[in-house]
Design brief:
Layout lengths: L1 H16 L5 H12 L4 H7 L9 H37 L16 H14 L4 E2 L5 E3 H4 L19 E3 L9 E3 L4 H10 L4 E10 L11 E11 L4 H16 L5 E8 L2 E10 L16 E10 L1 H6 L8 E8 H9 L12 H4 L7
Parallel strand pairs: 1-5
Antiparallel strand pairs: 2-4, 3-4, 5-6, 6-10, 7-8, 8-9, 9-10
Helix pairs in contact: 1-4, 2-4, 3-4, 5-10
């Protein structure tokens, strides 16, 4: 016992006198005294040789010795941790410029969509949105599309669920944002002046000119004494604001079930400047939207008096407008998430 107590006394003196010059020496101290094969653990192992009547007294001595070694190790650790922190703080030069922060850019479709919305807002249009999963009535029936219309064919529409017994609605992915117009007319009385931006879906083969999903901006204006001249001037204003004053415009008669009369609008191709390319099919003109006066039957479907109110509607693809504005020759680029393509577009509209 006496020799063991003397040994502990000597060890405590050595621990107290130990001084380290660097973090490596602190680690060597830990290994020597507190490691798995260290001296503290060896001394603790002598407990088995102490007589039972002295175990309590000797256990307190051993525990105090262990705590003494651990406390000295903590002091050494704190000493060099503080020195390391001070070294780092003194090594920083706060006059240097900061590291640049990588800033992303808006998707080109988002940029163009926001610009389109901004143009029509200046004409008094408000934004209306609706569900992408739609029922047959709002997507087709309310828009004067009979059940045998080709647009209802499975080759064009992604149907989700049809009732097995023929009762209840048929659910589908909307093929146009005209369904949003239907919901607006269902819940709001004239005057109505809205644009309906959103994503739509059609079962088409993916190519440079077409995709199975794309984006539209449709417009609807219903009030007393609305004429086709109002429609034309609205679209003239949009085209000039979007593409500039020099762009040429033409209207062609067309047919849509929900408008009468109907027209498609072309602008001179901005990619080839009217000389002819694969985008304009070598005609020099690119069709950008369909339009017309709202069919009286559509108004009546929502309880709007077609003898008192008239209106016009139009719809265009955001991808097509973006294609012309930024001269993109492949619609598939918009959805491929290629950073080399996306980082070319900057700005917030």
């Amino acid at each position: 016992m006496e020799s063991l107590l003397q040994q502990i006394k000597e060890h405590k003196a050595a621990i107290a006198a130990f001084d380290a010059n660097n973090a490596d020496e602190v680690e060597q101290f830990r290994i020597k005294w507190l490691g798995t094969k260290g001296l503290v653990k060896a001394i603790m192992g002598e407990m088995r040789n102490v007589p039972n009547e002295q175990k309590k007294e000797f256990g307190q001595i051993l525990n105090e010795f262990k705590l003494f070694a651990e406390a000295r190790f903590q002091e050494l650790q704190d000493q060099f941790a503080g020195a390391a922190t001070a070294a780092v703080s003194h090594s920083q030069d706060f006059s240097l410029p900061g590291d640049p922060v990588a800033v992303g850019s808006r998707h080109p479709l988002t940029l163009v969509r926001n610009e389109m919305v901004s143009i029509f807002k200046r004409l008094g249009f408000s934004v209306a949105e609706g569900p992408e999963i739609e029922d047959d009535w709002h997507n087709f029936g309310a828009m004067n599309l009979p059940e045998d219309h080709p647009a209802r064919d499975m080759q064009d529409t992604f149907y989700i669920k049809k009732p097995e017994d023929g009762n209840g609605p048929t659910w589908l992915l909307r093929t146009h944002t005209s369904s949003v117009q239907a919901r607006v007319m269902e819940n709001q009385k004239p005057p109505i002046r809205v644009i309906c931006p959103g994503r739509v879906y059609r079962n088409e083969t993916v190519s440079a000119r077409a995709h199975c999903f794309f984006h539209q901006v449709e417009g609807l204006y219903i009030d007393e004494n609305v004429s086709f001249a109002d429609l034309k001037q609205t679209l003239y204003f949009f085209v000039q604001e979007m593409f500039g004053k020099d762009v040429k415009v033409r209207f062609r008669p067309s047919y849509f079930p929900f408008t009468e009369p109907s027209a498609e609008m072309d602008i001179s191709c901005l990619i080839c400047e009217g000389k002819g390319c694969n985008i304009c099919k070598h005609t020099g003109w690119v069709e950008i939207l369909g339009s017309g006066m709202v069919h009286p039957k559509v108004l009546e479907n929502f309880g709007i008096d077609s003898n008192k109110y008239t209106g016009f509607a139009f719809g265009m693809g955001v991808e097509r407008i973006t294609q012309l504005k930024y001269q993109v020759n492949d619609l598939r680029l918009y959805s491929q998430n290629d950073v080399r393509f996306l980082k070319q577009f900057t700005g917030v509209v």
